[in-house]
Specification:
With about 260 residues, the protein is mostly helical. The chain has one domain: MetI-like (MetI-like fold). About 75% of the residues lie in helices and about 0% in strands. The chain is globular, with a radius of gyration of 22 Å.
Length: about 260
C-alpha cells in the first residue's frame, strides 16, 4: 500500500523522534564523560572524569559481569536450542500450552521470580546465596522466551526436507542436526546468544536481589551513584560498560556476518 505524501512525512517524523529519544540518553552519557559538570550544553570540557574512576574495582566488576554474560549465554543455548527444535519440529499433546507458558518469565517482572528464589534460598540453602551458578541460573530465566522464539523462527524457515535427505542417506539424527540443521539456523542461534549476553552482562535486578559474591558492573555503578550522586566520572563507568558490551556483540556479529546476512541485509 502506497502512503500519501503527508502520511509518509508524518511517519518519518515519528520514526526520527522515536530514534532521538532512544539515542539521546547515550549521547548525554558521552557528553558528561568529557566534562566536569552535568549541564547541557557542557561548559567545562575535561578528561578529569577518567582519572577519578577507581579502575581496579571497576574492571573487576566488569570482568565478573562478562563472565556472567558468557555463562548465561552458554546456558541459554543449552536449554533453548533443543526446546525450540522440539516445539517446531515435533507435534505432541500440550504443545500449544507449552508455547504460551514459555512467555511466563516475560509476563512477570524479573523482581518477582528473583525475590521468590532469594526467599527460598535464604530459608533453606543460605550457603548458596551469591554463588556464581545461582546468579547465572536466575539471570537465564528472563531471556529464555526470546531465545526460544529466535531459534524457532529460524527453524520455521528451514525446510525439513534437508534433514530427511540426510537421514535417508544414512546420517544419524545427531550428525544431521549438527551438520545440516545447526548451520542453517545459525542466525537464530547467534541472535539468541546476543540477547542472552547483553541482558546478563548489564543485569542489575538479579544480582541485587539474589545477591552476588562479587559486584557486577551495574551494581558497582549503582553503588557509586548511591554514595556521591550522578557525577561525570559515573558517566565514564557507564560509557565504558556500554562500549565493552556492545563491542563484544558487534565482534560476534562481524565474525558471523555471513550467517547473519539473512536477518540484517
Amino acid at each position: 500500500m502506497k502512503l500519501s505524501r503527508p502520511a509518509a512525512i508524518a511517519l518519518n517524523i515519528y520514526a526520527l523522534t522515536l530514534a532521538f529519544f532512544l539515542i539521546w540518553p547515550l549521547f548525554q552519557i558521552v557528553l558528561n564523560s568529557f566534562t566536569t559538570d552535568i549541564d547541557f550544553p557542557p561548559s567545562n570540557w575535561s578528561l578529569d572524569s577518567f582519572r577519578n574512576v577507581l579502575w581496579s574495582g571497576f574492571f573487576q566488576s566488569l570482568i565478573y559481569s562478562l563472565e556472567l554474560g558468557l555463562a548465561v549465554t552458554a546456558l541459554l543455548i543449552f536449554i533453548c536450542l533443543p526446546a525450540a527444535y522440539v516445539m517446531e519440529r515435533r507435534r505432541f499433546r500440550g504443545r500449544a500450552l507449552l508455547s504460551v507458558l514459555i512467555f511466563v518469565p516475560i509476563i512477570f517482572p524479573v523482581v518477582i521470580y528473583s525475590s521468590a528464589v532469594s526467599v527460598y534460598i535464604f530459608m533453606f540453602y543460605s550457603q548458596w546465596r551469591g554463588a556464581f551458578w545461582l546468579v547465572t541460573l536466575v539471570m537465564a530465566m528472563w531471556p529464555i522466551p526470546l531465545a526460544i522464539r529466535s531459534i524457532q523462527s529460524s527453524l520455521a524457515n528451514v525446510d525439513p526436507i534437508y534433514e530427511e535427505a540426510a537421514l535417508i542417506l544414512g546420517a544419524s539424527p545427531l550428525l544431521t542436526f549438527f551438520k545440516i540443521t545447526l548451520p542453517l539456523i545459525a542466525p537464530g542461534v547467534i541472535t539468541a546468544a546476543m540477547i542472552g549476553f547483553t541482558a546478563a552482562a548489564t543485569n542489575f535486578v538479579v544480582p541485587q536481589i539474589v545477591g552476588s559474591n562479587i559486584m557486577p558492573v551495574s551494581v558497582y555503578i549503582f553503588g557509586d551513584i548511591s554514595k556521591i550522586g550522578f557525577v561525570p566520572w559515573v558517566s565514564v563507568e557507564v560509557l565504558v560498560m556500554q562500549l565493552v558490551v556492545l563491542g563484544i556483540v558487534q565482534i560476534l556479529y562481524f565474525v558471523f556476518r555471513k550467517q547473519m546476512r539473512g536477518i540484517f541485509v
